[in-house]
Amino acid sequence: MVAVYRRIGARIVQTSAGLLAAGALAGSALPAQGQDAPEPRYPRCQSAQLTGSMSPVQAGAGQRYADLTLTNSGDARCTLQGYGGMELVDAAGNPLPTTVTRAPDPGPTLLDLDPGESAAATLHWSTVPHGDEGDPCQPVAAGLRVIPPDETEPLPVEWTGDTVCGEGSLDGTAYHQG
Fold first, then answer.
1. Looking at the keywords, is Signal present (predicted)?
2. Cβ-count burial of 15 within 10 angstroms (0-12 exposed, 13-18 middle, 19+ buried)?
3. How confident is the model at residue 135 (pLDDT cuts 50, 70, 90)?
4. Of all helices (H) and strands (E), which one includes residue 166?
5. For residue 44, what is the DSSP state?
6. Which of 61, 119, 120, 140 could be bridged to 175 by S-S, CB 3.0 to 4.6 A?
7. pTM of the model
8. Position 19 in a domain
9. Alpha carbons 28 and 84: distance in angstroms, whole number
10. Which domain holds residue 56?
C-alpha cells in the first residue's frame, strides 16, 4: 500500500492509493499527518508552464546522482511544493521499469518560482545489478516522464544518465531551490 497525502483546506491528510500511471507518486508536501501546511501565495506550477532538464551525472562506485530541474517557462509566478512522479522511457517512449522512493532530505518546502526560476529534485540510483538482474540490468532510458507535485500531466525530460538497476529504482528528494 502506498501513502498519498492530499490537501483538504489548509490540512494535509493521508489516504491510501495505488501508484499513478506514470510509475510514481506525483504527491504534494508531506508535513506530519494532520499538521497545518503553509498556504501557497500563488497558483501552483502546472506541467504546461514548466520545462524540465537533468544536470550532468555525478558518478562513483556504482552510484549515480543528478538533479532533475523544473523551470517556470510561463509568464507568471507559480508555487511548487513537494515530491513529483517520474517514469523512465525508452527512445520510442515506451515505459521502462521504474520504482521511485521519496528521499527525506531535503523534505518539502514551499517554493515561489518567478518566470525563468527553477527548482530541483536530487535523484540517486545504482548501476550495479541486483539479485538476478543481468548486466546491463535494463536498457538505458532515453527520457523521463515527469509529473510535477500536485499535477497529473507528465512533461518530457531527456535522460542524461545511464542504466538504472534494481528494476529501475530511483530515489528522489522533494523539490528544493535549484
1. yes
2. exposed
3. confident
4. helix 165-168
5. B
6. 119
7. 0.78
8. no
9. 7
10. 47-177
